[in-house]
Amino acid sequence: MIKDTRCIAFGSRSSSLRRDSSGFTLLELIISIAILGLIVVIVGGAMKLGIQSVERGEKRIDALERIRTSLNVIEAQIQCMTGLTYDDNGEKKRYFKADRDSLQFSTNYSIWGGQRGYTIVSYDVGTDNNGKQSMKASETIVGMSDSRETSLLGSFDKIYFEYFSKGPTDEKGSWVDNWTDDINIPEKIKLHLVSAQNDFALIIPVRIAESVNKTAAASVTSATKK
Questions:
Q1: How far apart are CA 24 and CA 219, in angstroms?
Q2: What distances in angstroms separate CA 67 from CA 54, 74, 207, one per listed residue?
Q3: Number of alpha carbons in the 13 Å side-chain half-sphere of residue 81
Q4: Is 163 exposed, middle or buried (0-12, 13-18, 19+ CB in 10 A)?
Q5: pLDDT of res. 182
Q6: For residue 84, which of 68, 106, 111, 204 is within the disulfide window of CB 3.0 to 4.6 Å?
Q7: Are 192 and 199 in contact, with CB atoms under 8 Å apart?
Q8: Is 106 within 8 Å of 131 (Cβ atoms)?
C-alpha cells in the first residue's frame, strides 16, 4: 500500500501549529507582566499624588479658617475697646500702649469668655528660628493677677501694626507705626500680614476713639483755663 506522504507532512505541520497557538511563550508572558506592573505603578503614583493634593488642600483650608477666626477675634476686641484708665501715683493713665510689634488696650470682649467685663489684652509679635513671625495674645481680667495666653497668627514673613494719626489741624491724617500720644487713641488700627510679595492689611475702626478724644481734649482745655 502506498502512503500519501504529503498528507502525513501536512498533518505534522497542523499539529505543530496547534501546539504553538495553544498558549503564551515565556517572552510574551514576561512582557505582559512588565506592562501590567508599569500600569500599576502609574495608577498608584496618580492615586498618591491625588491623596497628597487633597491633604494639602485640607491643611490650607484649616490654616485659612484659623486665620479668619483669629482676625475676627482681633477685630471684635479692638471694636469693643474701652477708655479704661488706671491710677499711677495720682495720675490717670490709659491702658492703651501701641507700637509696631505690640498692642495693649482694655476691652470688654474676651477670647475665652466672650463679653465678660473689662479685660486687658496684649498682642505681641515674635520671630522664630526660621525668620517667620507669629503673634500671641495674652489677657488679664482687671482686678486679677492671672493671665491667659494663646497663639493667634503664625508663619508670616512680617506681622506689624500701624495707627491712624490725625491732629486737630490735620486735614487728611497719616499712618504711624509707633503711638506716642498718651492722651488720645487712634481712630483706626491697621494690621499687616505679609507673606512673600503679598501684603494683606486689615483696617479696624476704633469705635470709641471720637468720644474718648473729645473728652480728653475737653479735660486739657479745662485744665489750661484753670
A1: 102
A2: 20, 10, 23
A3: 29
A4: buried
A5: 83
A6: 106
A7: yes
A8: no
Close Cβ partners of 86 (under 8 Å, ≥ 6 residues apart):
92, 93, 95
Q: Which residue matches cell numbers 482676625? A: 71
Which stretches of the chain score pLDDT less than 70? Answer: 1-24, 57-59, 114-117, 216-226
For 96-123, write each residue's pLDDT tens digit: 999 999 999 999 898 887 656 689 999 9
Closest CA to 156 of 61, 56, 67: 67
**Sign of the C-alpha dihedral, residues 175, 178, 183, 186?**
positive
Entry pTM: 0.71
- The Cα–Cα gap between 107 and 175 comes to 23
CA distance 66 to 57: 14
**Per-residue model confidence as pLDDT tens digits over 159-180:** 999 999 887 777 788 999 999 8
Cell of residue 12, nine digits: 505534522
CB contact at 8 A, 162 and 190:
yes
* φ, ψ at 162 (rounded to 5°): -135, 155
Strands 133-141 and 119-127: antiparallel
Taking the C-alpha atoms of residue 117 and residue 119, their distance in angstroms, rounded to an integer, is 6
